[in-house]
Amino acid sequence: MITVRGLTRRFGPVTAIEGLDFELQKGEVVGFLGPNGAGKSTTMRILAGYLPASEGAAVVAGFDVLRQSMEVRKRIGYLPESVPLYSELRVEEMLEFQGRLHGLSRSERRQRIPRVLERAGIADRSRAIIARLSRGQRQRVGFAVALLPDPQVLILDEPTSGLDPLQRLEIRKLLSELAREHTVLLSSHILPEIEAVCPRVIILSHGRIAADGSKDELLQRLGGGSYVRVEAVVGPDVAGALRLLASIRGAGEVRDRGRLGIHHVFDVACVEDLREDIGALAAARKWALRELSWRKPSLEQLFARIALDLPAEPEPQPLASSAPAAQSVGVQVQLPVAPAAKGLTPLSPFEAPQRAPASAAGPSAGPAAGPAASSDATHGPAASKSAGAPRVVYNLNPFDQGASRDLSRPKAIDEPPAQH
Amino acid sequence: MQGLWTIYRRELAGLFLSPLAWILLTIALFAHGYFFIVYLVGVTGRDLRAAMQLALAGDVFWWFMLLLPPLLTMRMISEEARSGVLEFLLTAPASDLAVILGKLGAATSFMGILWSSVLIYGLLAQLLGVSPDWIPALSGVLGATLISGLFSSIGLVASALSSTPILAAFGAVVLNFIVIALPSLDALLKLPPGHWAKVALGHASVVSQYQSSFGIGVLDSKHLVFFLVWTAFFVFIATRLLEKRRWS
Q1: What is the CA radius of gyration of chain B?
Q2: I need a surface site. Which of A164, A252, A363, B191 has the fewest CB within 10 A?
Q3: Distance between A44 CA and the closest CA of chain B, angstroms
Q4: B51-101, pLDDT tens digit by residue?
Q5: Between chains, do B14 and A86 touch, taking CB under 8 Å as contact?
Q6: What domain range is A361 assigned to?
C-alpha cells in the first residue's frame, strides 16, 4: 500500500529525513516512533502529498505521491498533528465540506457523515461550532474528517497528543477497529499507544530508520538484556552469594546492585526466566527473599535508548544513577565491613518513603517493623524518640515528596553487629 | 476543476461567518450611500445616471478599491497557513489553482455584492418615478466587480507572501497603490509625448482603461481582456507562491 524508497528531504542545510526505505502491506498497521524532530511529520507530509521529497520516491495506493498527487490524495485520509479544521464552521458543515472536496454525492454524504461521527464518538456535538470544542473533541472531529471518504490509507500524525488518558484509551480502541479495514500509518511519541495498537514499529532517529519490525523482534535484536531481580537477605557473604547466583545454569552476568537495608539486591542476566531456580537456591541457602522478578526491557526503554543514542548494551533500569559508588559493574564485591559508605542508594522519590522507615527504626527492627515505623519517619520528630538510634536527616518540608531526604545517612542497621 | 466550487462556497461562507465582513459591508455601504447622495445632489445636479456612474468610477471608488480587497483577502492564505488549515486544503483532492480561484471568487463575489448596492439606488429612483439608465448601470456593476477581482488577486499574492494577515493587508494596499498610481509616473517623469514608456504606461493604466470602458457604460472586449489578463497574471503568481510554501 505504501512503498518508500530512498526518501530524503532537506530544508535548506538541514536534512530532515535521509534515505528512508520501508513498505506497508495492505491492512498493515504501523507505528512511527521517534523523538521530536526525528522526521516523523516530514515523512507523513510527503506521503500525504503536502511536501515534495528532495530525493527518492514514495508510492501510496499504487500512485506516485509527486506525479500523481491527486490520485493519492483521493485515497488517503491524512490527519495532521495540528488537526486543521475551520473553526467558524459547525462540525457537520466541516464534514460536508470534506465530503464535497472528495466528490461524494449528496446521498453518500447524508449516509456517511452520521456514521463517521458516530464512529469517532462525536455524534452528539454535530451541531457545535468547532471553535467551541475541546482539544479532545476537535481530535475526534479530525478523525471523522479523515475517515469520511473511506480512504484506503490512513496517515495519522500524533492522533492522541493532547488527550487525557480516558480519551486516549477510546482513540486507541477506535484505532484498533480501523486497523481491520484500512492500512494505517500513525506516529506517536507515546509508547503504550504504539505498543497497544501497532504490531509493527518503525523507529526514526535523526531522520533515519533506527529500527523496523515487530515489537518482539525489536526487543530481541536491539534490547536483549532481560534479567531476574533478586532482593534477599544473604548475610555477610555477598561474594559467595554472587558466585552461587552466577553458577545457576543459564545465568549470565550477575550484578550487585548494593544494599537496601538488610537486603541485598542482585540482577541476574538471563535469556530465560530463572525465577524458580533462583527461588530454589534461596530456599536452600535460607535467604529471606523480598523480591524475585523477571524483568524485560520495555519498548519504552528501547526507544529511550535509541532516542538518546545510548549504546546497545545498556544499564537496564539503573537503580542508582546519581551515586557512582553504587554502580557496581559485573561481579564486584562489596566488603561487608563498609557497606554504609556505599550503603543505601538514593532511590526514586516515590520509593523513598517506604524504604526510609526501615533504616529509621533502629537496629532491632526487622523488615516487619516497616509499616509501624513508616508513620514515624514521615513525621520527622517522632523518629528521634528512639534514643541511641542513628540520626536520620530528613527534610521536613511537607511539600517535599522525599526527593531531598538524605538517605545516605542511616547506616546502623547495615552493620553486622557482631563484627564490630 | 474539482473542488473549485466547493472551496468557493466555503470561502464565501467563511467571509460571512466572520464579523470583519459584516463590519466592512456596513461601513462601505454607508459610505457608498453617502457619496452617492453627494454625487446626486451636490456634484451632478440631480442627474441620476451621472451619479450612478460616478459611484462606480469616481475618486471614492478607487479608495474603496485600494482598501477593501486587501482586508478581504488578507486572512485567506496567511492565516490558514498559520492555523494549519492550508495543510488540510493542500492535501485534499483539489489543485492549488482551484484553491486560489475559489478564494478569489469568494472575495470578488463579496465585492460584487457591495457594488450592486448601486442598483438598489437605481431601483429606488425607478420606484419614485425617475428611470435610470439600466444598461450602463449594470455594466458599471459588472466592471466594478471585475476590477475588484483584479485587486483581490493582488491581495491573494500579498497573503501568500506574508506570514500574518496584517502584513498581508499592508502589502496588498501598497501593491494596489502601485497599480492605481502607475500612470502618474508619466506626469512625474515629464516624459515627452510619443515616448515608448509613456505609451506603455498609458496602456497599463488600470484607472484610465476602466474609465474609458466600464466607467461610462461601454463594454469592450479589449478592456475585458485587459482586466482578465492582469487578474490571470496575479492568480498565476499566487498559485506559484502557494506551491512554494510546500517547498520551504
Answers
A1: 19
A2: A164
A3: 11
A4: 887 888 777 888 888 999 999 999 899 999 888 899 999 999 999 999 999
A5: yes
A6: 347-420
